[in-house]
Amino acid sequence: MTHLSQIKRRHTKVVKIGRVKIGGSNPIAIQSMCKTDTHDVDATINQIKNLERAGCEIIRVAVLDMAAARVLGRIKQAISLPLVADIHFDFRLALEAIKQGVDKIRINPGNIGARDRVEAVVKAARAKHVPIRIGVNSGSIPADILKKNNGPTPAGMVEAALREIKILEELDFHDIVISLKATDVLTMTQAHRLLSRKVDYPQHLGVTEAGLPWTGTIKSTAGLAILLNEGIGDTIRVSLTGDPVEEVRVAWEILKSLRLREHGRTIISCPTCGRTQIDLIGLAKKIDAATARITKPITIAVMGCPVNGPGEAREADIGVAGTIGQGIIFKKGKIIATVPEAEILPRLLKEIETL
Ligand code: SF4
Asked: 321 C-alpha to center of ligand 1: Å?
């Protein structure tokens, strides 16, 4: 049993991305990005469906050329997640993506070029209620801002974002989401913090190029948790060099750890010590795998001994504390059975079903 956190979220403007609302008091949404070639419609749809099953709530695809832009409608029709088109520079791709029915576009107006092109994109986005995400990356700050700040600083990233925002605001377009991505955790966190004092548009958080799953998970958690704890962040993405499903799973664990969202099962398991009398690590892994698909928020405790078992895991909905060759099963803090080691897993799963 969990209860939602006391973190006071910063108030931001509400922006609608298809059926998902972000900002305001809406839940922090989890995003991911397809790693497939967007032209390969079947592979892209498959990946999106896998991500949705893992709990992804908004999906972005790279749109590199007109052929990719033209398949967006087919992708959109086959999925239920809001679809975001990631476009660089070419305003015609943005227009086509909007025509194909995407729910958000990610494009920097400063990169589009001539004013009439920016106006065309804004006009099309406005007509279809498609928000625009401005994405500033520490690696692509305009040269004059870089020079002024002596490199890619948080202040420079904010200045670059404000410049992009101004272009849209001058066209009376306010359906804006902003991301300030850096691979350096302190740069990214400070940039978002500074930005949050200047504008109230929803912020999309991510530590970019965070690395392979192990280091990437830690680095992303460090960056996202700092900001989320300060109430900053309306959507998040964990970027990992690996399976995007893993990105979504990590994102959920971050939000669950801060009690910002509830989702699926949470496993509390002890580290084991000299008191452990059963194969606890093996058991915890089996329970983890067997309960991965549970969407209801429940807490399962897997403890190595009865000394600290039911006591430390009192908050758990269901749990086991190992003893010599046996497991003491407890539910909502009360012991309900003692079973041989081999029967712990089936018994726990049976009890979980009844919850
Ligand atoms: S719950 Fe028991 S076995 Fe696990 S670490 Fe604590 S004392 Fe050791």
From this structure: 9
Say yes or no: CB of residue 273 within 6 Å of ligand 1: yes
Nearest atom (ligand 1) to Cα of 321: 1
Share of the chain above pLDDT 90, in %: 86
CA angle 6, 7, 10 (to 5 degrees): 135
Q: Count CB atoms within 10 A of the CB of residue 283.
A: 20
d(CA 188, CA 177): 16
The residue whose two tokens read 């108030």 is: 11
Nearest-10 crossing angle of helices 244-257, 213-229? 40
User: What are the residue boundaries of the structural domains of the chain, listed by start?
Assistant: 15-257, 265-354
What DSSP element (H or E) covers 235?
strand 235-237
Instruction: Report phi then psi at 265, rounded to 5.
Output: -90, 150
53 membership: H or E segment, kind and range: helix 41-54
* Atom number, ligand 1, closest to the C-alpha of residue 322: 3
Burial of 67 (0-12, 13-18, 19+ CB in 10 A): exposed
Concatenated DSSP letters of 138-196: GGG--HHHHHHHTSS-HHHHHHHHHHHHHHHHHTT---EEEEEEBSSHHHHHHHHHHHH
CATH topology of domain 265-354: Sulfite Reductase Hemoprotein; domain 1 (3.30.413)
**Residue of 276, 277, 302 to test ligand 1 pocket, by largest number of atoms within 8 Å of CB:** 276
Give the pLDDT band (50/70/90) at residue 4. low
- Using the mean position of ligand 1's atoms as its centre, give its distance from the Cα of residue 331 in Å: 18
Residue 40: CB atoms within 10 Å? 14
The answer to pTM > 0.85 is yes
Predicted local confidence at residue 111, as pLDDT = 86
Q: One-letter amino acid identity for 277?
A: Q
Centre of ligand 1 from the C-alpha of residue 334, in Å? 18
The class that CATH gives domain 15-257 is alpha beta
H/E stretch holding 226 reads: helix 213-229
